[in-house]
């Protein structure tokens, strides 16, 4: 499974009509996490000793992409205080946890 397919499943989206927008949102989510200090793995679907070692990385990407997808409004001075939702607190906590994970170290454990 690829990240785009997983995101579409997570958002419950059928068809390919929104693939271009979803790809942009997906890449923006990954860049956001990288800028927050999260190192990205080469293989998001790596299994080590039966464990999906980057599941939390993928969940953070999905949650952030969902936030971007659901908050696609134009920001103007009149909407900035009422319409724009902050990034969920649970996601902020998750980012703090995974930013200390070294994907290379986890990948070498197989």
Automatic annotation (TrEMBL):
This is Phage-like protein. Signal peptide: none annotated. InterPro entries: Phage_gp6-like_head-tail, Phage_HK97_gp6-like. It comes from the Bacteria.
